[in-house]
Amino acid sequence: MTVLSKSSAAVVTATLPAVQAHGAAITSRFYQRMFAAHPELLDLFNRGNQATGRQQAALAAAVVAYAEHLTGHSTLPWAPILDRIAHKHASLGITATQYPIVGRHLLAAVGEVLGDAVTPEVATAWNEVYWLLACELIAREARLYTVAGLPLQADAGWRPWRIVEKIPETADVVSLILAPADGDPAPTFTPGQYVSVAVDLGDSQGRQIRQYSLSGRPGAATWRITVKRLRGGAGAAGGSAGSPAPDGTVSSQLHDRTAVGDVLRLSPAFGEVSSIGALGAPLLLVSAGIGVTPAMAALAQLGAVAPAREVVLVHADRSAAAHPLRHELPELQQRMPNLSVHLWYEDATDGEIAGLKATVHAGRVDPTLVPLTPGAWAHLCGPVPFMAQVRGELLRRGMPAERIGYEVFGPGMLAG
Ligand SMILES: Cc1cc2nc3c(=O)[nH]c(=O)nc-3n(C[C@H](O)[C@H](O)[C@H](O)COP(=O)(O)OP(=O)(O)OC[C@H]3O[C@@H](n4cnc5c(N)ncnc54)[C@H](O)[C@@H]3O)c2cc1C
Ligand code: HEM
Q1: Distance CA 32, CA 56 (A)
Q2: What residue spans of 311-413 are helical by DSSP H?
């Protein structure tokens, strides 16, 4: 167990409220400082998250929550939080040598924001917190790289992948079928895992990286990602009437400015998958919108290797026409006699899917109606409020928390 020294524990406890209160200001100042000193890191970090403040919130929340954990002010289980960050870092190719840079600028930002309150003792105590957390992450990331057979160096395992097919799925979703451009075979993966995709933005705008869940069958000769175009405007994340948000950078690029034959750089597959992996128990898959992608990889795998498995699929969408990959369900159900499908469409007027036996509801998902099989594991993927609501109901109905996995398509985790 990681322990903070006694003297630092007292100082951290005393200064926690101040750091907590100024967490957003500290991390915002941290990023300004770090990018000024290391402009090359602008290509590594998600500029959309920077603009909307989501990444600031995630980093600040992690450091403060870890300090609370070390000083006994929180009983939050830490392993899943560390695992999530480590998998995200590994998919970005982050290395131990980058931790001193982040540490230096983070601690300097604490000093700038809190001013005279940061005595040498306070600086030492928070330095200790940072490095205890950094060491936990570095160790986990080293283990992930080693298990994946990768060297411990920047961008290890990133490869060129050629787009061999581009399939329109719905009005705003497209699938890319990708084959290794270096001639080596496509590695397999576990359903629920994702890859980082790097795109060059052209016009000296640098590069951006985003994560996409693999939506095809593990073990296939190609990988598939299924990408929803993020539209900007006044109502989008970070937008307002006076200042409409821009269209999503990478999703727009993948939709509009990539074609069959183009080559993209992809990381190896990472992502914790305990609730969706190769278990024998019944499985409950709950998704909304583009959150269907991990569920489709799970169904593709189970259809091939464990077709008798009891699986309940719950999916919510605006309408049948907006439901990505729905055309794969009838064939999966033919192969999987114990797959039951429950669809919630806000507009259910054209809700039937030819050849599919499904219960179709009109409106938004009512979590109290989600069928629960005894002993089931669950995997959720969709907007955070949707997942929080469904998870709350599953917990209320007695499903143990450790059996409920989920994926957030952005930084952060569900509370509690
Ligand atoms: C583990 C994981 C798996 C994922 N799997 C999938 C998947 O299978 N399919 C999928 O489609 N997506 C998936 N995502 C989401 C994906 O990674 C991207 O976040 C998504 O495609 C949007 O990226 P973007 O570059 O298009 O948008 P960004 O450019 O990152 O923009 C995001 C939002 O921020 C707003 N914004 C950006 N800049 C500004 C600004 N300057 N001012 C105000 N607002 C701004 C935009 O309008 C937009 O609403 C996944 C994410 C994770 C973490
Ligand atoms: C103790 C040190 C660190 C902590 C506590 C930390 C914490 C986090 C957290 C909480 C996230 C969001 C994870 C998620 O839920 O998706 C994240 C993402 C990220 N981290 Fe770290 N991190 C640390 C060190 C580093 C280092 C050394 C780098 C490399 C320079 C780095 C680069 C990134 C990047 C690029 C992302 C994704 C950003 C995005 O998508 O917006 N981090 N980190």
Answers
A1: 11
A2: 329-335, 384-396
Element (H, E) at 240: none
Domain contains 373: yes
Residue 394 lies in a domain: yes
Report how many domains make up the chain: 3
pLDDT tens-digit series, residues 40-79: 999 999 888 777 767 667 777 788 889 999 998 888 888 8
Closest ligand relative to 229 C-alpha: 1
Domain that holds residue 181: 159-266
Which residues sit with their C-beta closer than 6 Å to ligand 2? 41, 44-46, 49, 55, 58-59, 62-63, 84-85, 88-89, 92, 94, 98-99, 102, 130, 133-134, 137, 411-412
What is the distance between the alpha carbons of residues 52 and 234, in angstroms, rounded to a whole number? 13
Answer whether 0.90 is exceeded by the pTM. yes
145 counts as catalytic: no
Structure tokens at 407: 């994926």
Q: Which residues contact 100 (CB under 8 A, 6 or more apart)?
A: none
Identify the CA nearest to 340 among candidates 371, 306, 303, 361.
371
Total residues belonging to the chain: 416
Q: How far is the CA of 59 from the centre of ligand 2 (A)?
A: 6
Q: Check if 250 has its Cβ closer than 6 Å to any atom of ligand 1.
A: yes
β-bridge mates for residue 224, sequence order: 177
- Ligand of minimum distance to the alpha carbon of 88: 2
